[in-house]
Specification:
Blueprint (H helix, E strand, L loop, with lengths): L4 E6 L18 H7 L4 E8 L5 H10 L3 H4 L6 E2 L7 H7 L3 E6 L16 E4 L5 H5 L1 H9 L1 H4 L13 H18 L3 E7 L24 H13 L1 H6 L6 H32 L4 E6 L4 E2 L5 E2 L6 H4 E2 L1 E4 L6 E8 H12 L19 E5 L1 H14 L13 E5 L3 E6 L2 E6 L12 H18 L8 E2 L4 H9 L4
Parallel strand pairs: 1-6, 1-7, 2-12, 4-5, 4-6
Antiparallel strand pairs: 2-10, 2-11, 3-17, 7-11, 8-9, 13-14, 14-15, 15-16
Helix pairs in contact: 8-11, 9-11
Length: about 475
Amino acid sequence: MSRDIVWITLESVRQDHTTLGGYHRDTTPFLKSLSERTDGAAFENCFSHDVWTRASSASILTGLASSSHRTWTQENRLSSDVPTIPEALQRAGYRTACISPNPQLSDVTGLARGFDDFHYLGRDTLLEEAGVPTVLRYLTKLNTHSAGYTTDTAKHSVGYISDAIARRHIREAARDDESLFLYTHLGDSHHPYYPPKPYQDLYADGFEMSVDEALKLAMEMSSDLHGYIARGASFTEDEWNALHAMYDALIRYVDDTVRSIVEYAEERLDDPLVVVTSDHGELFGEKGMLAHMVVADDAVSHVPLVVSGVDGLSGTRSDVVQHADAMKTVLSEAGVDADVPVGMDLRDGDREFAVTQRSGARCASKLEMIRERDDSFDASRYHAGDLTSLRTHDYRYQRSESGEELFAIPDEVTDVSDEHPDARERLAEECESWLNTYGLPKSEREERAEFDDSMTSHLEDLGYL
């Protein structure tokens, strides 16, 4: 029987807010401990393929670049003729299951294909997907695993339910002696940064306002995200501190949820392969932005990655890597034949550069939403059209129809193209070659994602619309 694979993707967690990234708060103690096992590895320089959930998830589940799978606008879903990795795992005899509380990762966006069981956790589907007993237990635990007894669904966390469904699949796979591919997307660290009650004062010593005021601020920011950006994201120092503290508390909560799922899997499955990462990071004022949109800087593309159970892979690694590399590695370790076009085995050494993309159509839509809040907002400072960004250890090179620029890391503000012409020229050539090799559309078909009213409301809660 093939090795079980447990893949957990966190929502909006940036590397520099984790214990793994040397953060001043111990937000991810379990991830740190997982990486320190003899068969565990932490990657300090992992970069997402895109800057938002739908596109990043599509890259993880297809092994394709965003400009290739084209699932990178608010309108597009994954074309039905683009093969997925879960389909390959099905052919290899795996039981495949996915849990997602985000409509961007759902059947509507074409990303449920290849999963025997797909659980989208929305307000209208929660009972059916989780089951009555699980929901009843959840309701008794709203004061420990969520925001308490409030009807404001934007405040609630569903990590408890994701954990319960994951455990169910683990038990059933172990019982039936089936190889399991379990993909769990934990969405509670997405804004509005409203932690479960026991976590709300976890880092309250980091700001002066009251916890209630901090929670109110987080909700207000999320509900008027584009307005705050239009007005310059001009929070006071204490407001920034409060927002960071609420965000960090949610990271700690999802880390605890990861611990619960992984430890349960290791108790019942035979030596599972484990991957924990984040779909993208989160912006807190960098380039004047919030959340995850428009830019591809480290804040929104540099993410944690921990892999456990792969022979020959251990310790803290400084290699530049991407999600597709982790997928290619665990599939190889499990003996599964699947194409991962932009991936390379993590054991084969350091890739020269990582590539993060974002679509021009989604960027234009976001900038228009921002301008509607304040028509004096200057959108000309941002790249127009599709953006492709190459990240090496030393540089970030990016190009779009607006032009190109080169940054010397960690400075992502000052264009150093004139000071480093050789580096700019070399990376420009690499970018052109990469786009011609990996960036062309995989399919000529274009399919649209049509969300129902419930999903649309859910997307509004998450600030997508």
